[in-house]
């Protein structure tokens, strides 16, 4: 075990149409991760359901009493790890959200992030995809602490918004975790680039967690779950197949980079700054 760090596992899960099977597969991987020494296990976006606006309603469930939440809570307790539950379609009253739940090793729900930026595109004659037809957007930036490590959460498209990551960094995060499912166009172009950009600009660890690629699915995910260090280097990466990435996050590297390249203390916040409007609520 690292003195100043955390051993994490990122699960590139094969997700199919059968919710029960998806949940079982996730739980199995959580135990496998524990066996590999992980203290925190992160699942991909939509770990329990196929991705696509037409599926959100059918697969949605409440947090924390839905079957997926209950299974994650149980797995966190049984394996004795923190579970970052990728995302699931959450039903809350009449609204649906794309939601990440985080369970500590005692089964407490310690964070719940609802995707802040909904992905809406409409390119005439090409592609229309509007999450906002079905989903509501979250209004909060979410961070949590586990074993003394401050961690920030974003979901897929949230990764593109630097300011959100910067707020999490300002709140003291050393690690950002993004469950996400980029597609076969944006994946090769931007998945790694954006992850490395966030890591490099903010000098922290970034974990990107994708479902495995299923070429038969409506939505074909890029895969390439990866861990990026505060120097901006990819230290570990999966290909497109189902897999489990286990790695040590060394927090000393955060301090090392920040002391060697002191952009954090040399920012000219007298001429520019990023502020959070949620400071008063946290
Ligand atoms: C993936 O998403 C991009 C950005 O919205 C879109 O332009 C592209 O057509 C999509 N690619 C595939 C293969 O669906």
From TrEMBL:
Pfam families, alphabetically?
A: CN_hydrolase
For this protein, the record's InterPro entries field holds: C-N_Hydrolase, C-N_Hydrolase_sf, Nit1/2_C-N_Hydrolase
Q: Main EC class of this protein?
A: hydrolase
**What catalytic reaction does the record list?**
2-oxosuccinamate + H2O = oxaloacetate + NH4(+); 2-oxoglutaramate + H2O = 2-oxoglutarate + NH4(+)
Q: Which GO terms describe its biological process?
A: asparagine metabolic process; glutamine metabolic process; oxaloacetate metabolic process
Tell me the ranges covered by the CN hydrolase domain, including all copies: 6-251
Task: Write the record's keywords in alphabetical order, separated by commas.
Answer: Hydrolase
Q: Which terms does the record give in the GO molecular function aspect?
A: omega-amidase activity
In Swiss-Prot or TrEMBL terms, this protein is called omega-amidase
Gene3D superfamilies reported for this sequence: Carbon-nitrogen hydrolase
Q: What is the lineage of its organism?
A: Eukaryota, Metazoa, Ecdysozoa, Arthropoda, Hexapoda
Q: Which family is this protein grouped under? A: Belongs to the carbon-nitrogen hydrolase superfamily. NIT1/NIT2 family.
A GO cellular component annotation in the UniProt record: mitochondrion
Q: What is its EC number?
A: 3.5.1.3
């Amino acid at each position: 075990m690292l003195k100043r760090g955390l051993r994490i596992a990122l699960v590139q899960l094969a997700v199919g149409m059968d919710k029960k099977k998806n949940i079982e597969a996730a739980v199995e991987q959580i135990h496998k991760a524990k066996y590999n020494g992980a203290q925190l296990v992160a699942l991909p976006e939509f770990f329990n359901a196929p991705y696509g606006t037409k599926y959100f309603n059918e697969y949605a469930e409440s947090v924390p009493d839905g079957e997926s939440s209950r299974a994650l809570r149980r797995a966190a307790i049984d394996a004795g790890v923190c579970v970052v539950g990728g995302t699931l379609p959450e039903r809350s009253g009449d609204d649906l959200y794309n939601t990440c739940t985080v369970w500590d090793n005692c089964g407490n729900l310690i964070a719940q992030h609802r995707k802040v930026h909904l992905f809406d595109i409409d390119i005439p004659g090409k592609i229309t995809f509007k999450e906002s037809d079905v989903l509501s957007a979250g209004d909060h930036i979410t961070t949590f602490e586990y074993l003394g490590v401050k961690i920030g959460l974003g979901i897929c498209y949230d990764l593109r918004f630097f300011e959100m990551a910067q707020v999490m960094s300002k709140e003291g995060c050393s690690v950002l975790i993004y469950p996400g499912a980029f597609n076969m166009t944006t994946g090769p172009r931007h998945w790694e680039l954006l992850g490395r950009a966030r890591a490099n600009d903010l000098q922290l660890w970034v974990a990107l967690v994708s479902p495995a690629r299923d070429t038969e699915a409506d939505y074909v995910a890029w895969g390439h779950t990866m861990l990026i260090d505060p120097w901006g280097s990819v230290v570990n990466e999966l290909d497109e197949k189902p897999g489990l990435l286990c790695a040590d996050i060394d927090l000393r590297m955060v301090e090392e980079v920040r002391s060697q390249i002191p952009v954090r203390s040399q920012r000219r916040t007298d001429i520019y700054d990023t502020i959070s409007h949620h400071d008063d609520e946290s």
